[in-house]
Amino acid sequence: MEYTAAQSGFRQQHNMRLRNSSMDGSDGSQLFDDTSATGPGAQGVYRNQQAGPQAAGGLPGQSLLSDPMSNLAMAYGSSLASQGREMVDKNLDRFIPISKLKYYFAVDTVYVGKKLGILVFPYMHENWEVSYQQDIPVAPRFDVNAPDLYIPTMGFITYILVAGLALGTQNRFSPELLGVQASSALVWLIMEVLAVLLSLYLVTVNTDLTTIDLLAFSGYKYVGMILGVVAGLLFGKLAYYLSLLWCCAAIFVFMIRTLRLKLLSEAAAEGKLVRGARNQLRMYLTMSIAAAQPVFMYWLTYHLVR
Amino acid sequence: MSIQKKKKHMAFTLYTIIQTAILCTNAIAVLHEERFLSKIGWGVDQGVGGFGDDPGVRAQILNLIRSVRTVMRVPLIIVNSACIILLLLFG
C-alpha cells in the first residue's frame, strides 16, 4: 500500500510539474495549481501527505505562499490531513491495541541474547515462571521468560530474506517469489494462531494467554528454521537435517515447558500426576501445540534446501 | 515441472484466508437445526446440561455452532451477496 501511495505521489508531482510548465506562459494562475494540489487530498490522507510536501518542494520559483488563496487552500489541506490522521489513529487503536503492543517490544540486547540461547538450548534453564508486578506481567526487559514480539518479527523477516537467498543459490529466484514466500508463511502463522485459539476455546482453559502471546510463541520457531536453512546452505543437506532436528527438539521442549505453566492447573504443572479427563485433555492440547511446531518448521523449509 | 508444482503448492495469499473464513462460516451456518443437528444429538436443547465448571468439549462445540448460526446469519447474507456480485463482474 505505501508503494502505490508513493507512486501516486510521484505521479501527482509529475503532473503538477507538467501542468505548471504549460500554464506558466499563459496565466500562471495560482488558484488552479493550488486546488489541484489539495484536490486529491480529499480522497486519501496518505496521498495528500506525500503529494503535499512534494508538490510544495517541487515548484521552484513559484511565489506560492504570498497568495492569500493559496494560504487558505494549504491551511485547508493541512487541516484535512491532520483530521484524517486523527481518525486513522483513533480507529486503528480500536482494532489493534497499540499500547499493549509496546509492551512486547520493550526488549534489550541482553534479553534477546538470553532468549535466543534458551530457544536453541532450553535444557539448562530452570525457572520458567513469568514474574508479575502487581498483576501485570513484567516487561520482557526484566524477565527472560516473558514473551516478546521482537524476536518473532525479526525472525520472520530474516526467514524471508534467507528464503530468497536459498532460492537464489538454486537459480529459482524472482522478486515475486519473495512476496509469495512471505504471504504463505504469514498465512500459515495466522492459521496456526487461529487453530490454537479455537482449541483453547473448546477445552475451556482459564488462562491469561492473550492472542499476542500466542502469536509470539508461534513466531519463535522462525529462529530454528533460519538456523536450519543457513546450515543447509553452508554445509549441505546433512547439516540441514541435523540442525533442523536439533532445533525441532529444542522448540518442542521450550513450548512444553512454557505452556505447561500457563495451560495446566498448578498441581499438574508441578509434575504430579493429576487424574481427570480435563487435565488429560489439557495435557494433550499442550503436547499437540508443541508437536505442531516441528511439523511447521519442516514444512516451511524443506523446499528451500535441495 | 517441479517449479510449477512448487508454485501451485505454496501460492497462499491473504485472499485465501478470507475465502477459507467465508466458506467455513457458510458451512457452519447451513447446518439445519431440526433436520440434521437434532437427529445426531447435537440440537440446541441437548447441549446445555452441566452448570458446573466443566462444560466439556461437546457442549462448547454446540455452543459455538449455535452462536455462529445466530450471530453470522445476516452478515453472511451481505458477504455472500457481495461475493456473488464480485465474481459475476470480475470472474
Automatic annotation (TrEMBL), chain A:
Segments passing through the bilayer: 149-168, 180-202, 214-234, 240-260, 281-300
Role description: Has a role in transport between endoplasmic reticulum and Golgi.
One annotated GO biological process: protein transport
GO cellular component: COPII-coated ER to Golgi transport vesicle; endoplasmic reticulum membrane; endoplasmic reticulum-Golgi intermediate compartment; Golgi membrane
Compartments where found: Endoplasmic reticulum membrane; Golgi apparatus membrane
Pfam families: YIF1
Segments of skewed composition (Polar residues): 1-38
Organism the protein comes from: Poecilia mexicana
Protein name in UniProt: Protein YIF1
UniProtKB/TrEMBL annotation, chain B:
InterPro entries reported in the protein's UniProt record: Yos1
UniProt GO cellular component terms: COPII-coated ER to Golgi transport vesicle; endoplasmic reticulum membrane; Golgi membrane
Swiss-Prot/TrEMBL keywords: Membrane, Protein transport, Transmembrane, Transmembrane helix, Transport
Entry superkingdom: Eukaryota
Any one Pfam family match given in the protein's UniProt record, by short name: Yos1
Membrane-spanning parts: 12-32, 72-90
Example GO biological process: protein transport
Subcellular location: Membrane
Residues spanning the signal sequence: none
Family classification: Belongs to the YOS1 family.
Annotated function: Regulator of endoplasmic reticulum secretion that acts as a key determinant of brain size. Required for secretion of extracellular matrix proteins. Required for correct brain development by depositing sufficient extracellular matrix proteins for tissue integrity and the proliferation of neural progenitors. Acts as a regulator of the unfolded protein response (UPR).
Protein name: Immediate early response 3-interacting protein 1
